[in-house]
């Protein structure tokens, strides 16, 4: 093996070793970046948390962890949706679509989860009048890749038209220009294209003229040479040819001597360079081995640190999730979010809310027949069943007072008073109590029979105090709902005239007449037929 081949092999080995060292450093840096972003995201809330989640999704994408990138982007999109931040939601949907697409999802505009992410991102930008052309173009380019892979030629043409429109300053809607300024802009663009074509054509003509001029000069020189040759005598031509042969021989000998001298110098220089390169390569290899060892040690330490931090972060996330679930179990979602962001919450007025009270008939006699443990256990069974029922209808549990149960509907933005949902939930409560009492009767256990009252109207809701937070509601609507429950009968649902006017077309009811209520006068009441 020649020295030159040895040098080439050693150089390639060093390049490969450098590549793996740099790759190790890059992986360690990327891992540390992900760990840092995870720690920052855990401590962030609101808009800051959305931005950290999107940055974390980008980091996972760069690291090839597509499942984790999609998960972070999906969480950011849901949080942006709940906080009504459309532009950040569109950005998070773009990242989620990229993660799903690079993770191997297939299809176009139907059965998969990839293309709808990009479509929804652009729909949000368009519906909210947001000017973010780079994001819109990126969404369309990804959709074009998906359509191209799926063989959707028509969709590819439509997407190309939209992309050209956006790159030329148009919008997502695809409308043609209607203003004079838009028409002037299009005419200006066309004129610029014509000018460029004329310039290229003129440049071609100039090149052609230059070639013709050079050709003419060469023809003139050739004609002059031929004229000079024709004027020379035979003796002059022989002398000229002999002189040219001698000059050619002298030039050839001088050239060979120069080439030999230059070749010898090159070989000496190559030999010295090879010796220097060998010594330099030995030194480089020693340094690289040290660097490789250090990089490997740093990478191992980084992986260990990352594993420890990941376990700690998981513990922190679990504790945070438990804390948030506990807070949501005590307070409504809107109030809990406001309390986490600002440390306090303001009272709110609701113009139309439905309130339900439920109370057990003869609870004092039931308490005398059961042990304290059995009594509390039976109450817990009932109230857990009530909780599951109202959760299915999106109603909000307010509190329990002794054997009384109170819940409300219509306190979420845009939901309405939910009288129909409240009535269905009340019917399910009575049906559940009937089945439960049938199971208890053979065991000789006392019967739990509930009175339920429903009324709709305005009220005020909020959190009072700064210890042991309790969400509560106040107003005449709450008081009237309690009086209607007290005026009811066991096993039946008693509703006010306000509630009856809303549900009369959907639920059969029995009119009871005007019944006197303490401090409220006479109120129309109805029994909802089971």
What is the average of the pLDDT values?
Answer: 81
H/E order of the elements? HHHHHHHHHHEHHEEHEEHEHEE
Measure the end-to-end span. 100 Å
CATH architecture of the largest domain: 2-Layer Sandwich
> What is the number of strand segments?
8
Structural class: alpha+beta
When the domains are counted, the total is 3
Q: Strand content of the residues, in percent?
A: 5-15%
Oligomer: single chain
Q: Per CATH, what is the topology of the largest domain?
A: Alpha-Beta Plaits
Low-confidence stretches: 107-111, 174-180
For CATH, the homologous superfamily of the largest domain is named as Nucleotide cyclase, GGDEF domain
Brief synopsis:
This protein has helices at residues 3-42, 46-62, 66-82, 86-102, 115-127, 133-149, 153-167, 180-231, 234-330, 333-342, 363-369, 372-392, 419-440, 476-486, 497-503, and strands at residues 348-360, 396-401, 404-409, 450-464, 470-474, 493-496, 509-517, 521-528.
Can you walk through the features of this model?
By secondary structure, this protein is α+β, with helices and mostly antiparallel strands. The chain contains 15 helices and 8 strands. Strands 1, 2, 3, 4, 5, 6, 7 and 8 form an 8-stranded mixed β-sheet that branches. Helix 5 runs antiparallel to helix 6. The longest helix has 97 residues, at 234-330. Mean pLDDT is 81; it is low at 107-111 and 174-180.
Task: Indicate the topology.
Layout: H1 3-42, H2 46-62, H3 66-82, H4 86-102, H5 115-127, H6 133-149, H7 153-167, H8 180-231, H9 234-330, H10 333-342, E1 348-360, H11 363-369, H12 372-392, E2 396-401, E3 404-409, H13 419-440, E4 450-464, E5 470-474, H14 476-486, E6 493-496, H15 497-503, E7 509-517, E8 521-528
Parallel strand pairs: 4-6
Antiparallel strand pairs: 1-3, 1-4, 2-3, 4-5, 6-8, 7-8
Helix pairs in contact: 1-2, 1-9, 2-3, 2-4, 3-4, 4-5, 4-6, 5-6, 6-7, 12-13
